[in-house]
Structures are given as C-alpha cells and as structure tokens.
Amino acid sequence: MKQKTASRKIKILVAKLGLDGHDRGALVLCRAFRDAGMEVIYSGLFATPERIAQIAEDEDVDAIALSLLNGAHNTLFPRVVKCLKQKGINDVLVVGGGVIPQEDKKGLEKSGINGVFGPGTPLPTVIDHIVKEVAKIRKI
C-alpha cells in the first residue's frame, strides 16, 4: 500500500451493497465528496462486501461510505468491516448511511462503522465527519 500522508486528497469509495438498486443518494454523495475536494470511486450497484474490500485494497482508499436502503445494514455493513480486517486493512474509515433505525446505530458502531447517517443528514455533516476521522487515522 502507498503511504497515506496528510497532504494528499482523501480518497473515498462510495459503495452500494447487496440487492439495493437505489443509487440516487449515493450519486449525490459522490458529487458532494468530489466538490469537497475528495477523490471519489463509485462501486456501482450490487457490490458484495468482499468486492468492496477488494476495491478498497486495490485503490488504497482512506474511507468507504456504504449506502444501503434495503434493510440489510446489520448484516452487510459489519461484513465489510470483517472483510477489510481479513485483508489486514485497519486504516480505512468506514461510514454507513441509508434508512437505518436509531436502535441499530449503536450495534453498527460497535461492529466498526464510524458514523451512521440517515436520510436528511446535511451533506456538510457527513463531509466534516469524514475529514476529521481520516485526519485522526492518518496521525496514527
């Protein structure tokens, strides 16, 4: 892997998981992240956790923004974290968003999702979280 320095742009993978064909929100995130100065990679629809981990490794990303609207977040989000760990990737921020009930957020955070965002979250809130958390990871 390349050296992740504080001076380079944040490289983020926006990933659509599982059998969820609703990508409008993910595409809005792609544009917002790009406009915020990040380098954006989009997984396309129907990505598996294994595929997302492979893209993260191949592209040497700093962060992954998972998007899921079909209710499988409690299964698929933690699976992405597990796949990253199996590859020895421990320096990538993973955030998630979609229609996620409040009662599921703590469990997702315990599984390694560092930021869970629901519908209506202002884009600057998501961007600021990613920028701050990636800065923390890069200092480690």
Structural features, described:
With 140 residues, this protein is of the alpha/beta class. The chain has one domain: Cobalamin-binding domain (Rossmann fold), CATH 3.40.50.280. 45% of the residues lie in helices and 17% in strands. The chain is built from five helices and five strands. A five-stranded parallel β-sheet has the order 2-1-3-4-5, with helices on both faces. Strand 1, helix 1 (24-35) and strand 2 (39-42) form a beta-alpha-beta unit. Helix 2 crosses helix 3. The longest helix is centred in the last third of the chain and has 17 residues, at 123-139.
Query: What string gives the helices and strands in order?
Result: EHEHEHEHEH
CATH class: Alpha Beta
Outline the low-pLDDT stretches: none
Q: Briefly note the structural class of the backbone.
A: alpha/beta
Rounded average pLDDT: 93
Main sheet attributes: strand count, strand direction, barrel closure: 5 strands, parallel
Taken as a percent bin, the fraction of beta residues is 15-25%
| Widest sheet, order of strands | 2-1-3-4-5
Question: How many distinct helices?
Answer: 5
**Total number of strands:** 5
- First-last Cα distance: 16 Å
Oligomer: single chain
Instruction: Identify the CATH homologous superfamily.
Output: Cobalamin-binding domain
Global geometry:
globular
Helix content: 40-55%
CATH topology: Rossmann fold
For the record, the CATH architecture stands as 3-Layer(aba) Sandwich
Radius of gyration equals: 14 Å
Question: Which keywords apply here?
Answer:
alpha/beta; five-stranded parallel sheet; Rossmann fold; 5 strands; 140 residues; 5 helices
